[in-house]
Amino acid sequence: MGERQASGGGEPGAERPDEDAEERPGRATGPAAAAPAGDAGGRAEAEPAGEPRTAEEGAEPPGAEKGRGLPTNFFVMGFTGALGVLTAWMLVEALVEVRGVFINILVALFLAVGLNPIIEFLRRRGLPRWAAIVAVCAALVLGVTGFVWTLVPPLTVQVTEFANAVPDYVRQLQENRLMADLDRRFGLIDQLQSVLTSADFGQRVFGGVFGIGQAVLDSLVATFTVLVLTLFFMASLPGITETGYRLVPRSRRAGVRELGDEIIRRVGDFIGGQLLIAAIGGVVAFLYLTAIGFGYALTLALVVGVTALIPLVGTTIGALAAAAAVSFGDPVMGAVTLVFFLVYQQIESYVISPRIMQRSVDVAPTVTITSALIGGALLGLVGALLAVPAAAAVTLILQRVVFPRLDRA
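User: That's the sequence. What structure does it adopt?
Assistant: Structure tokens below.
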């Protein structure tokens, strides 16, 4: 008993080392446990491999190796981010600068796809493809030349007549009671004369004339560019489509080829339908203007036919142009002309156009109007022209691909 008390008088932590070892089986026992504290090798052998060493025992805490790299340089990070933003901004600016080129390419590709059915029709009649392309391009050039040739002489004559009649218009204004009263109150004639005799009047006039000339020159260059690009696209359209189809995996190539050919066919039918609607509008305008005895019936009929190619608002623009031209000679007949074309516009919108376009593009009227408005807001007139066939392509993809997959899901 005394021995037990003597032995138990020590520190509590020193009692029963064997029992402590049994209670903590993860701690090493035996000779390895008795190794000196400074012996790193002995301690390494004594400790099990699965138990991490603490920082007090000399072991590195988790994640210490990751912190051994270079410290984060926020200046380099900021400079890299600023360089990326600058590169993106320069890319956007470059795209904006070449926007006109992309629009010309889109228009040329659109025309090439739309005129392809005519080329295929001529090929089925025995002409080689190159001869069919030359014939179509010659027809396009002759059409544009004929339109300009019939439009320029009447405009020249009317501008000359207006310039010669300006003194008579001024005299009539002076003799008018209302204008005489306004001139007496506000001095309109004196203000007009001061504007005409001012030093910067000539500069403003010539600046406007040069601006108009620059716009006309740019339009001619863009038209020539589109015609040349259309010629090349028509010649290489089979190769372009075949290259596009080869980018699709072979297992899906047949379906994509069928879908792509159908889209090309619908775009061609849309252009053919628009040309047919424009031709009908031009013929109706020519017959009406000839019946009322208008001197430039052919020129104005061509204007009405060309403006009819513009979706939604083309017929309205042509009606306003025809009414304004007729009103110069007879205001009453100009009002009658406006009413006539507005009635024809309703017939075209609800009878002629739906029957032709329903067979060609098969697009709901709501989709047609919405797509034309969105395309016009994005790319102007070109966007309005391209929006309807693009909507037809999207509708076809939904009907042939998306909806069947959703039905099978």
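The two ends are 86 Å apart (CA to CA).
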